[in-house]
Each structure stands twice: as C-alpha cells, then as structure tokens.
Design a protein that fits this description.
The chain has 367 residues and is mainly β. The chain contains two helices and 27 strands. Strand 19 and strand 20 form a beta hairpin. The longest helix has 16 residues.
Length: 367
C-alpha cells in the first residue's frame, strides 16, 4: 500500500513538472448534490399560530411528509375533545419530500378560547401537533368594568376610549356573538372613527337576547377589547289596584315580555341599607359618618320576597300575573321574575309604594 502511494506521488510530481495539473476528486462525504438520507415514516407535524382574515381565521402549521404522500387537516372545538375539522388536503410524496412544508387552512371564524391542532397522516401512521388556543390581542381599550343589563327591546350603549398615541380618528368596529356564545364574533353595523382623543360610543338598538360584545380596530393587525357580556332582561310591568273591601287589601297584576309562561314572579319589599354610624361624642369621626352615608346611597337597594305567583299565558308575545294580598308592611315593592340562565336574564319592574292595612289582633284561647 505504501509503495502505491509513493508511486502516485512521484507521478503527480512528474506531471506538475511538465505543466500538467489534475483536479482533485471530492471525498465521498463532500460530493456535490449529496443529501442526508431520510427514511420513510409517519409525518412530522407541528401546530403553528393563527391570524385573522376578515371574519375568518387562518390556522397555520408545518408538515414533513418524510417521502410519503401525506394528508393533513386541522381539528378544532371549544375543548381539547375538538368536535370539528377542516377538509383534508394532500402533500405529494417522493424522494424530495423530506423537509417541513408550511401549511394553512381557513375556518369561518373561531371564538376566543377555542382549541385547534394540526393532524397529518400517511401510510406509515398519523401524528398530531401540540394543541393551541385561540386568543386575541387585548390592548388599548379603556371601558367600564361592568354594564347594567338592558331590558328587552331597549338600547345598549357602549362608550369608551382607544388609548395610546395616534389613536384619534382610527377606524373601529363593534362585534357580537349572541347566546349561547358559540358562533364567531361578527361585525355589527359599519365601522366608525374614534374622536380626536380616541373616544367612541356604539349604540345597539332593540336588544332581544343576551350577547357578548367586543370592539376591534380595523386593519391587518387588529386590536381587540375584552369581551363585554351584556344581559337582555325580561320586561316586567307592575300595576296596583286598591280594593274597596278592606284597607291594605290590594291586587298586584302586570305583564312579562316576552312571554315567560310558568316562570315565578316574586313581589319584593325594598330593605333599607344598614349604615354603621359612629358615636357623635367624637367630632373627628363625623366625617366617617358622612362617608358611610354616601356609601350607603351608592349601594344598590336590596329586596326581600314577600309574596309570589306563577306567570300565566296571555298572548304569544306577553304573559300575565295577578295576585290579591293584604299588605302588612308598608314600603316600596317591585315584581321580580326569576329565570334560569339562558338567552334572557331575570328582570324586575319599577317600584311602587304600598300602604299597610290594619294589624290583626291575635285571639288568645281561654284556658
């Protein structure tokens, strides 16, 4: 072997002396066009991110077919049990199908909180990417922390500010997802422009069902507000008819819209809020008393159930209730219709003032 090497070296030196050069042959590991051998097998799958495309959502990921013809799809749903999936698409196989391929599919909008995952399968098996959750970028919206319920048929107003520099005159749009909140958010009406300071206001007329709202900026990278859960409560009307038979005996009657036949209506008495008043012999505590009084005025009133009745049929659109009672406690009363969680929330009437009748004296039995 050594003699062959010496002879090869002497031959090369002789050729060099004669002005002849030979190109060096590449080593096998350096040969041009050589690629790493990839064996066939189940696809390699990675679930990627998502992006909004109008009212739709584009799901993304990567698939490596590993030389085999591979189909892929996204599955999605409100939990990691999913329940829905996109139409299958195909990646061609072959000796060159050995790298990660970016794939994407469009879904007609996905609500926030939904999960999704990319699935790939070929002749050697099925692989699933890591589940991802649909989240939205929430930034820049200054809104009230709570919103009062809106009576059915009323107008719901959302006012706030889009904070940050350059947000004056920016296009924003109101979006909604009605009860049971499983449909994707969709635009309500047309976009509006924020004021010079970013202030805005939306009005939703004739609210007929409890709805989740949010506000989004218009553009390729929209900002979203927090979800605004707004309840639509039943409309309750309470009327009073004083009887001439006995003082304090009244008929409480009214209507419920829309019709809620079988629901229970409670006649409630307003209770005065409890206020702790500090002792007046310490002047420095008088200001605390005033503060306590102010807080009591700010707190919503509380009500106690006194009587109840079942709502009865009237028409397709309304139902009625009626009850004749003897009022033992004077005060402010209201009718409250209690409903289970659903498309409409429980509702109450305006308060009415009722006067008490004569107190019945108890008769003691003679021993």
């Amino acid at each position: 072997m050594a003699s062959l090497t010496i002879k090869r070296t002497l031959a090369l030196l002789a050729l060099a002396a004669a002005g002849i050069t030979l190109a060096a042959s590449p080593l096998p590991s350096q040969a041009a066009g050589t690629t790493k051998t990839v064996t066939a097998g189940p696809p390699k799958v990675s679930t990627g991110g998502f992006r909004a495309a109008g009212s739709s959502t584009v799901l993304e990921g990567t698939v490596n077919p590993r030389t085999l013809t591979t189909t892929y799809y996204f599955k999605y749903g409100p939990t990691r049990a999913y329940g829905s999936q996109t139409t299958e698409a195909t990646l061609a196989g072959g000796s060159t199908a050995t790298t990660n391929v970016k794939v994407s599919q469009t879904v007609a909008g996905l609500p926030e909180g939904y999960f999704y995952a990319l699935v790939g399968k070929n002749a050697d098996g099925t692989k699933e990417g890591k589940p991802q959750e649909v989240t939205v970028k929430k930034s820049g919206f200054d809104l009230p922390k709570t919103f009062a319920a809106t009576v059915v048929g009323g107008t719901f107003v959302i006012s706030g500010t889009l904070t940050g520099a350059g947000n004056g005159g920016r296009q924003i749009v109101l979006q909604a997802s009605p009860y049971p909140y499983r449909t994707p958010f969709a635009d309500v009406g047309v976009p509006i422009l924020t004021g010079p300071t970013g202030a805005f206001s939306f009005s939703v007329r004739d609210l007929s069902i409890s709805t989740h709202f949010r506000i989004a900026t218009v553009g390729p990278a929209p900002l979203y507000s927090d979800v605004i859960p707004e309840q639509a409560e039943v409309r309750v009307v309470l009327k009073v008819q004083i009887t001439s038979h006995r003082k304090g005996l009244v008929r409480l009657y009214g209507t419920v819209t829309p019709a809620e036949v079988g629901a229970r209506v409670f006649f409630q008495l307003e209770k005065a809020p409890k206020v702790k008043v500090p002792k007046a012999d310490k002047p420095e505590k008088l200001s605390k008393s005033e503060k306590a009084t102010e807080k009591a005025e700010e707190r919503p009133p509380t009500f106690a159930n006194k009587f109840s009745e079942v709502v009865k049929h009237a028409t397709r659109s309304i139902s009625r209730f009626s009850l004749v009672v003897s009022i033992q406690e004077a005060g402010h009363y209201r009718a409250f219709v209690a409903l289970p969680a659903g498309p409409l929330a429980s509702g109450s009437s305006e308060v009415v003032t009722l006067h008490a009748g004569p107190v019945k004296k108890s008769k003691r039995k003679k021993k």
